[in-house]
């Protein structure tokens, strides 16, 4: 944290503070919502709770992943995302 960009940290703080507004908008969405979370993610419970608050949302727990690994592990995410998008396209 000491070497982090203070402007980036400020932006992150503002974004996290607006999380409830984002959840409200997601809850109103007409389309399907897919949430991915690593089983070692400290935010896993919050992500699962978010999915529970959104009608029709799907939350997939990825094994042996922390928070940022969900962005890096395409070997785990693509097999989840591709069928989800195919179902969305099929209507």
TrEMBL record:
InterPro entries: AB_hydrolase_fold. SUPFAM superfamilies: alpha/beta-Hydrolases (SSF53474). It comes from the Bacteria. Gene3D superfamilies: alpha/beta hydrolase. This is AB hydrolase-1 domain-containing protein. The lineage of its organism: Bacteria, Bacillati, Actinomycetota, Actinomycetes, Kitasatosporales.
């Amino acid at each position: 944290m000491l070497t982090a960009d203070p402007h980036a940290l400020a932006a992150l703080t503002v974004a996290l503070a607006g999380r409830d507004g984002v959840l409200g908008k997601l809850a109103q969405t007409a389309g399907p919502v897919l949430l991915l979370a690593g089983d070692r993610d400290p935010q896993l419970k919050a992500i699962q709770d978010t999915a529970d608050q959104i009608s029709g949302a799907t939350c997939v727990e990825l094994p042996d992943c922390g928070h940022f690994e969900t962005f890096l592990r395409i070997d785990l995410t693509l097999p989840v995302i591709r069928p989800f998008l195919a179902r969305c396209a099929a209507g």
